[in-house]
Amino acid sequence: MLTKLEQQKLFPLASKDNTNKDTVIRVKDVQFGKEPIVIAGPCAVECEEQIDTIASFLHKNSVPVLRGGAYKPRTSPYSFQGLHEKGLQMLSAAGKKYNLVTVSEAVDEHSLKQVAHYCDIIQIGARNMFNYELLKKVGKFSKPVLLKRGMSATISEFLTAAEYIIKSGNKDVILCERGIRTFENYTRNTLDLSAVAAIRELSHLPVIVDPSHGSGRRSLVTPLAKASLAVGGQGLMIEIHNEPSKALSDGFQSLDFSTFKNLLLELKT
Amino acid sequence: MLTKLEQQKLFPLASKDNTNKDTVIRVKDVQFGKEPIVIAGPCAVECEEQIDTIASFLHKNSVPVLRGGAYKPRTSPYSFQGLHEKGLQMLSAAGKKYNLVTVSEAVDEHSLKQVAHYCDIIQIGARNMFNYELLKKVGKFSKPVLLKRGMSATISEFLTAAEYIIKSGNKDVILCERGIRTFENYTRNTLDLSAVAAIRELSHLPVIVDPSHGSGRRSLVTPLAKASLAVGGQGLMIEIHNEPSKALSDGFQSLDFSTFKNLLLELKT
Amino acid sequence: MLTKLEQQKLFPLASKDNTNKDTVIRVKDVQFGKEPIVIAGPCAVECEEQIDTIASFLHKNSVPVLRGGAYKPRTSPYSFQGLHEKGLQMLSAAGKKYNLVTVSEAVDEHSLKQVAHYCDIIQIGARNMFNYELLKKVGKFSKPVLLKRGMSATISEFLTAAEYIIKSGNKDVILCERGIRTFENYTRNTLDLSAVAAIRELSHLPVIVDPSHGSGRRSLVTPLAKASLAVGGQGLMIEIHNEPSKALSDGFQSLDFSTFKNLLLELKT
Amino acid sequence: MLTKLEQQKLFPLASKDNTNKDTVIRVKDVQFGKEPIVIAGPCAVECEEQIDTIASFLHKNSVPVLRGGAYKPRTSPYSFQGLHEKGLQMLSAAGKKYNLVTVSEAVDEHSLKQVAHYCDIIQIGARNMFNYELLKKVGKFSKPVLLKRGMSATISEFLTAAEYIIKSGNKDVILCERGIRTFENYTRNTLDLSAVAAIRELSHLPVIVDPSHGSGRRSLVTPLAKASLAVGGQGLMIEIHNEPSKALSDGFQSLDFSTFKNLLLELKT
User: Fold this and answer.
1) Nearest chain C Cα to D2, which residue?
2) Alpha helices in chain D (DSSP H)
3) Which of A72, B171, B215, D229 is the most interior residue, by most CB within 10 Å?
4) Domain that includes residue A89, residue range
């Protein structure tokens, strides 16, 4: 049940006990761990026009962080795997043009170097949370890391994965709850908001929530986004697309612009 | 993934499609499905003094519904099993004295008759959600039913359990999400708030949340209560006790009076 | 992790520690806990001809126990619910005609009396394993009980459910592993054969396996039946049907006569 | 539920439909997919003496494959992480001395090259089954791959992971079931023997079973090993240690020599 002693043994650096204040991670003008931060963008960068359209929309709506995958860990080797370096260049250009912080996923040493070069934040995805070698490697970089919870990771294992990164030298770790795998199949995953409240108690690291992957259903994203902040989440990661029905991946869980604007409005009430 | 057709086949009476408005269930002055309703009380009725103290406290804090178990389905046959009819009498007396709506769990035909006699709402617990004979029987009573989700029940099975009750004649069913069983063991169960948002879409029945059983940890109850309402939950069921450390069951997840008052304050902000 | 002390506290009567030998339960000429026993039959008794055909087939193939549901706990209230007393009469008649031990499920007090009257063994199904009132009630009968594991029950809870029955007066409990609910959806449930090995260590009660419900796929039944005996299971419960494609319930997991004969052959090799 | 069409789309190369016979993978004198093969050895190579003692013991008992971890993906960064290249050298030396096939885990590009250099079979562990970049990389090597199922991977995802390897050029993939993560906590994982039977139907690749990690309990290894072969498993991977109580990792699930010899005897009966 994770006693104080076990916490100290498993994740001393990530544990709340070793610090008297929560960590705030500053990326340009964005401060994770202070005000709730919204990250939005497409599952995958598809072309210049797409990412420019989305970045422009985010800029107009004061959303400060743009996400977009260029290295996509897809279940099937026959699915679209991302645009790789070209995608990162497009993402970076859009970020600069609209003054947005950018985040993209790295999946191995090669992509790690590229993401660190082109983006402001390096994402480690759920499928690689148990990939300890990648965690050690990202720990050598000086850019903040957005670490997603593995779909079968306990809260304790999630924090111990963060420990790997911090122990390797990079203390700027933003945690992201994105749902766990359970018997329930109406939703793609079961978003575990208890984990967010638990992490706020156990660790000084900021924790955000991804209700898009967490539910896998467009219609559930807005209520879950509101709940994510209510439970103590310090930010959100939302999949949006200018034309969800034409998205190359995960369109079924992406919000269109109009729905996303409503979500932003609802968060303010 | 539960198409419209499957919904119609599995739970036509509980489905949203068959009505143009959400159900409001009135019990005395309390209306489930309208304003968020807070239900609170001890896991088990232990003695007159205990339930009177708690009922008085709820009355002073404008909490309208008192819960208290008299028939306790305990994992071990050697654990305290509740005070049975005497417990219901104590609960009923406290409810009348402080003008509170009362709810208690029924576990078979015998207790069903008693709970229906002494209380305003009949609770069917998580362990009996798949007990279809009990569902059919409670469907013959004219008192509202508070149906808790089984710990391994899918959303679809949960709504189909409600269908059993409605089909048997009792349309006043209040659903209660209380966590599902997963690999995560930091929490007692994994509270599935996606299910609440899903049920609001799929069904016209009111749905409330029990973050006490949902998390099994006192410190997580308040943040989860806030998230439960934010996600669309229409009420809360919270375990409280005048002296949690001396509770005969589930003390570790019960709030003391002071913490519960803070929870009520936080819900208002 | 279930220490000796916890076992003693939770299920002293079901625990191996309190006896120096495994329990053998004798029903007519059948001895559970001695030689592997095969139970077979349809999910539901559908008509006299069906159950007679199946019973005759079992008799010819030296399968000593006939199963057949008359009270069916179905997910949907709109599904076939069984023939009730008439079904039990048909089952009993077939059992007598072909000298087979009979077993059928009871789901409440009423059906309990009927099953005890017409059959040799009373089955408590997975959906009612946490229905402690039913466990207490079946504990008052003098016929052996076949207790199936709840789909979300831990091994410890399964044995504690048996404890409820024994503590109420009936020590003849046969346990049946039938799969647990997990994220895997290729199979209907995940058959937990580790639980069988664990129960052989922890308890003196006989334990059998139901690979039909455990897998929900006809083609997996035979290999899982072999594994069930190899791991230490003391019997099998197999769904068979003279015309699986026309079965009123669970036909997709029922074996036809020819496949079942092959299964019996394979068990002998 | 994985129709033929979905199989063809997700894993055409791993699917049984595209070949008329099961794959046999030959490594020296060992043929996976023909006779049941036993792999045994310590969780981690700890020193020359340890691995020599174990290799000698295996040789004497006609066990043809020696396992031993040199790159250990441990939950905690503060746990023993393996001897790396030195460990592989020791493993390789012991393998040569006693004429044993060797297998060890690779966790990234660096260790991949080393394992491919020193060992006969490259293991990809459960934590890296979703690490698609590693799968693509191991697909470029010409040595057979032992791919373990991820602890939250469906059968379909497991076979699709194999597809990544085959599509990258390496068709010699041995699958290994090692348990999935469920709510049951008596065992470390829930060994899913249905998956073995399912894979025998769905794929032409050989599949073996690891009951040591699958159960996490020494006393359950032997019965589960027997069940693994009975269900159709084409081999076993067993953790053994000359002094389990002094093992640097996973000693609690390792068999001592005497117990392992009994296991081998039981497999023959």
Assistant:
1) C186
2) 4-10, 48-60, 84-97, 109-118, 132-138, 155-167, 193-202, 211-215, 218-230, 257-268
3) B215
4) 4-268
Q: State the smallest CA–CA distance between residue B194 and chain A in angstroms.
A: 7
Given an 8 Å threshold on Cβ–Cβ distance, is A133 in contact with D107?
A: yes
pLDDT band at residue B1 under the 50/70/90 scheme: low
Task: Give the nearest partner residue to C131 out of B10, B77, B127, using CB atoms.
Answer: B127
Q: What is the pLDDT of residue D20?
A: 74
Distance from CA of B126 to the nearest CA of A (A): 16
Q: Cα distance from D175 to chain A (closest Cα, Å)?
A: 17
Has residue B2 been placed in a domain?
A: no
- C219 in contact with chain D, both atoms CB, cutoff 8 A: yes
State the Cα–Cα distance between residues D207 and D220, nearest whole angstrom.
20
One DSSP character per residue, chain B reads: ---HHHHHHH-TTTBGGG-SS---EEETTEEETTS-EEEEE-SB---HHHHHHHHHHHHHTT--EEE-BSS---SSTTS----THHHHHHHHHHHHHHT-EEEEE--SHHHHHHHHHH-SEEEE-GGGTT-HHHHHHHTTSSS-EEEEPPTT--HHHHHHHHHHHHHTT---EEEEE--B--S--SSSSB--HHHHHHHHHHBSS-EEE-HHHHH--HHHHHHHHHHHHHTT--EEEEEB-SSGGG-SS-GGGPBPHHHHHHHHHHHH-
Question: How many other CB atoms are found less than 10 A from the CB of residue B29?
Answer: 8
Does residue C7 form part of some domain? Answer: no
Distance from C-alpha of A78 to C-alpha of D218, rounded to nearest angstrom? 41
The packing angle between helices D218-230 and D257-268, to 10°, is: 20
Among the partner-chain residues C74, C111, C133, the one whose CB lies closest to the CB of B107 is C133
> For the domain that residue C206 is a member of, what is the CATH number?
3.20.20.70
Please give the distance of CA A25 from its chain centroid, rounded to a whole number: 14
The pair of structure tokens assigned to D217 is: 């309990």
Nearest CA in chain A to B156: A186
Structurally, chain C folds into a number of domains equal to 1
8 Å CB contact of B186 and A192? no
A30-32 and A25-27: which strand pairing?
Answer: antiparallel
Interface pTM (ipTM) of the complex? 0.96
pLDDT digits (tens, 9 = 90+) for C202-237: 999 999 999 999 999 999 999 999 999 999 999 999
| Chain A residue with Cα closest to C183 | A183
Residue B33, C-beta contacts closer than 8 angstroms, at least 6 positions apart: B22, B23, B24, B25, B205, B206, B234
> Which residue carries 């709850």 as its tokens?
A177
Per residue in B205-249, pLDDT (tens digit) is 999 999 999 999 999 999 999 999 999 999 999 999 999 998 888
pLDDT digit string (tens) for D9-18? 899 999 997 7
DSSP calls for C153-194: --HHHHHHHHHHHHHTT---EEEEE--B--S--SSSSB--HH
Integer Cα distance of A40 and A60 in angstroms = 13
Residue of A nearest to C1 (CA): A1
Is B26 among the domain residues?
no
Model-level pTM greater than 0.80? yes
Contact (Cβ atoms closer than 8 angstroms) between residue D183 and residue B181: yes
CB contact under 8 A, C181 and A183: yes
- The whole-number pLDDT of residue D4 equals 77
Q: What is the dihedral sign for C-alpha D199, D201, D202, D206?
A: positive
Q: How far apart are CA A63 and CA A225, in angstroms?
A: 15
Residue B59 forms contact with C (CB below 8 Å): no
DSSP state letter for D239: E
Interface of B with D in 157-196 (CB under 8 A): 181-183, 185
B109 contact C CB<8A: yes
C34 within a domain of the structure (yes/no): no
**Other CB atoms within 10 A of residue A136 CB:** 19
